[in-house]
Amino acid sequence: MITLSSASAATHAATAAQSAGDRDAKAITPPIRDVIGEQASERVDLKEGYEFRVAVGEWPPMISETLPDFGKHAKRFQTIFSAMGFKVQFVFVPWQRAYEQTRRGVYIATFPWLRTDIRIDEFHVPHYPIAHAHQKGFYKTTRFPDGINLNRLADVPLLGLRPVGIASYWYEEEFRRLGIAADMVSNPESAWRFLDADRADILFEEEEVGWFDLTRLLGEKVAATYATTDPITTNNMFILFSRNHPDGEALMRAYERYIASDEGQEICKEWSICKEDLPARSGQDRGRNSE
Fold first, then answer.
1. Phi and psi (nearest 5°) for 201?
2. What's the CA gap between 77 and 83, in Å, rounded?
3. Phi and psi torsions of 284, nearest 5°
4. Is 64 helix (H, G, I), strand (E, B) or coil?
5. Within a 10 A sphere around the Cβ of 19, how many other Cβ atoms?
6. Is 27 in contact with 92 (CB distance < 8 Å)?
7. Contact indicator for 140, 194 with CB cutoff of 8 Å
8. Contact assessment for residue 30 and residue 6, using Cβ atoms and an 8 Å cutoff
9. Which of 103, 154, 180, 229 has the fewest CB atoms found within 10 Å of its own CB?
10. Secondary structure of the chain: what % helix, strand, coil (to 5)?
11. Distance CA 175, CA 173 (A)
């Protein structure tokens, strides 16, 4: 378990489900008395000093247990909630586990995720995003010296391209829906090595994450031989607050009130996430990059 506050780690009263979640975390801290009272169902506001746990996974450089401040998005999350007077713990688990255990109420929140119809039903999704995702196609310039003119997944079969992808990423369902033949692998390293071995033509990834992984896994010289397409999608990403955690809705409301305030608007300008994004139904289930 990773804590970003100087205070001692805090948890809600232990339950069997939470104990199971703790065994998945990197370390275990003992439960302490809840900081805002005992009648969880009647709470409206969370007091200053409230401590909570957030389930996250590895998605460098955005979130990682091994990076300074635990990555760019983790630092942003901590900056916002610290300014609100709250204390945050990050619990690193596989992404799918983070999602499911937050849905069940083991953790109060997980981030960052794209908003979908399913997630609106299963979680409290705020109006204000926490980040943006710019999905692009990565390809080798030695294979496509004239570039690839592509700005939507539907162009992939029209151009005769065969993508490699990572199982459970946002595009897996879209590939099926569009009838795109793709080689699906289990993790980013396998995907990049598959692409670099010329066994596929293109890999779709969030732009900053893609360049980070490519350079980290294959080196700067190899990364210099790659290029990207225009953005395939540009999406807002959100914190998912649990509907089954007693404080899930209250924490979401506190987050929305703070971001809407003058102080919140000022602090979030650096990341261009201040604009309210009303949660309309998308009609598609586009999942965020996750394991």
1. -100, -30
2. 10
3. -135, 155
4. coil
5. 12
6. no
7. no
8. no
9. 154
10. 35, 20, 45
11. 5
CA distance 76 to 83: 11
Find tokens 């992984």 and name the residue: 213
* Chain segment 220-274, per-residue pLDDT in tens: 999 999 999 999 998 899 999 999 999 999 999 999 999 999 999 999 888 888 8
Beta bridge pairs of residue 3: 89
Cα 262 versus chain centre, distance: 26
Is the pTM of the predicted complex or chain greater than 0.85? Answer: no
Phi, psi of 17 (to 5 degrees): -65, -40
Q: Kindly compute the dihedral angle of the four CA atoms of residues 153, 157, 210, 231, in this order, to the nearest 10 degrees.
A: -40
- 1-10, 28-37, 182-191, 235-244: lowest mean pLDDT where? 28-37
> Would the CA dihedral through 99, 55, 77, 73 be positive or negative?
negative
Using one digit for the tens of pLDDT, what is the confidence trace for 96-141? 999 999 999 999 999 999 988 899 999 999 999 999 999 999 999 9
